[in-house]
Amino acid sequence: MAMETATLFTPCLEAMPTVKSAEGEILTKPFLDVCRLVLPVIEKFGSAMTLVKSDIGGNISRLDAKYESDPSANQILYNIVHKEVNEKTAKGSSSCTNGLLWLTRAMDFMVELFRNLLEHQEWTMTEACTNAYNKTLKKWHGWIASTSFTVAMKLGPDRKKFMEVIGGTGDIKSDMERFCTSFPVLLQENHNFLRSVGLDDLKAS
């Protein structure tokens, strides 16, 4: 895709086809790269998304450090979780399993938010954020996290300005639709896998 028709979603969309191996397994590094490419979009929300951004960034770094410690053993994303499950460390708050779970949940929230922006033209940014939060992260958060989130989401940017900024010179509606269609397939796969090892329902302390 030529740069002149790029939106902030373009790099992320271009990286998505590389996430799976020929055998259909999610690869650690390409998956983390796609997540990392969502960060520039999140950045444009400003202070409303500081918590989400640092949460996502921290979990990417944790998984990335694990990958770098042994790239061949950790090439397949779910191998990292299997190893922790076998070592009985998966449920620890600093585990990579926990990191993957919260990274996936935060991305669920972002997808839901972008979907709201597409489908509910009349909603303010705060309404779009709050609805997405209630549908995704809220049930996993304790009172403190939930309160912090609710306060932060009131600081959302003006919706129209935000769409202009992330749209660049490309077709933002089309790119957001593509993102909201293709990324959830990978996120759901993560949830299905984590559920299969009994780790999809860990709550925040």
From TrEMBL:
InterPro entries: GLTP_sf, Glycolipid_transfer_prot_dom. GO terms for molecular function: ceramide 1-phosphate binding; ceramide 1-phosphate transfer activity. Keywords: Transport. This is Glycolipid transfer protein domain-containing protein. The keyword Transport applies. One of its GO terms (cellular component) is cytosol. It comes from Araucaria cunninghamii (Hoop pine). Residues 26-167 form the Glycolipid transfer protein domain.
